[in-house]
Design brief:
3 domains; alpha+beta; 12 helices; Butyryl-CoA Dehydrogenase, subunit A, domain 3; Butyryl-CoA Dehydrogenase, subunit A, domain 2; Butyryl-Coa Dehydrogenase, subunit A, domain 1; 391 residues
Amino acid sequence: MTAVIAAPAPLRIAPDALAALTSAVGETAERFDRSAEFPRAGLEAVHRAGVFSAVVGERFGGAGLTGPDLLRVLQATGEGDPSVALILSNAVGVHLAQAQRDVWPEDRYRELLDALEERPVTVNTARAEPELGAPARGGLPETTLRRTTGGWVLSGRKAYVTASEGLDYHLVWAKTDEPTPRVGHAIVPGTSEGIRVIRTWDHLGLRASSTHDVVYEDVPVREEDFLEIPQDGGGYRDPSGRGGALSLAHAALYVGVARAAQGFFTRFARERVPSALGRAIATTERIQQVAGEIEGQLVQAEELLYGLTDRAARGDEEAIRRTQIAKPFIVRSAISAVEQAVAAIGNPGLTRRNPLERHLRDVLSARVHPPQEDAALVATGRRVLGAEGLA
């Protein structure tokens, strides 16, 4: 396939450029958190910064952003608004896969890139189902593709479909109705007839992520838009749970949330001057100790995040294996950093007019992304013990 996107202006990864991205995305974060509306303005800010085009593969005219630099962009976006960062990270996966091999039909991907020149284009994989739960735990979908004379029709219901109200393309995990079912993803444009969003998302955090249920009622799908997943005998495995250079993308955005919490904590400590103390609380050893602990947690998270990703991107097999177990520990550090900031500040940390309360709610969502902590620990423990071959 030839390049089909206009060459973007280079996306700068320098600290000042990332800080500007955080600021631009963060301008609307509180508003969308309160309204739970689709964060279109935040996504437009990301698009203006050149992020969407930067993740397009070089052979398609993009910058081919990957590895640690991509995670830095996701962290900076998450620091501004993690709902926007989550929607972005889901779209990124499609471009990375297409850069490695032509997964999408050529005309469909060209259609996506043509739109991307003008606006942010959102894509997400709809996998979870109300009855099945998370596919990373195993099982086959109830969502089904039935044969027609011109291709397929898709029917089923998916849960937790991030960006549902603003999705340009749904990648719907489904099985065929053939005697020997095949499993794969159906590319479904968001404008297709038969798509119905049910507003089920009313969560503690990431309230603007639009992670609602979606019902597909006899949605037409072209023959070539069914992307079959070869089965290896073990059934479907969620790509984000496999480990690898970019399996920590979701973790990166939550480190961004923790950095945002640290920023508020620092400003509050420097500005808060209790009358009984007569000086800023930042001058006290107690607050200095907390500040050191928060920074230590974030250094630990970032060293794991970027150190392993850099090695994994260069093909280090041991680093690739370690990314799976690294995710829960990065998440633990991010959550701990925010919780310590809240505990040290007291009531103001839980007051809605202060962003720290939102950061606490948002960072707790980090635990639900695969690999979830128990699965990562068990898988790593089995490998260490060599338990796969034991009776």
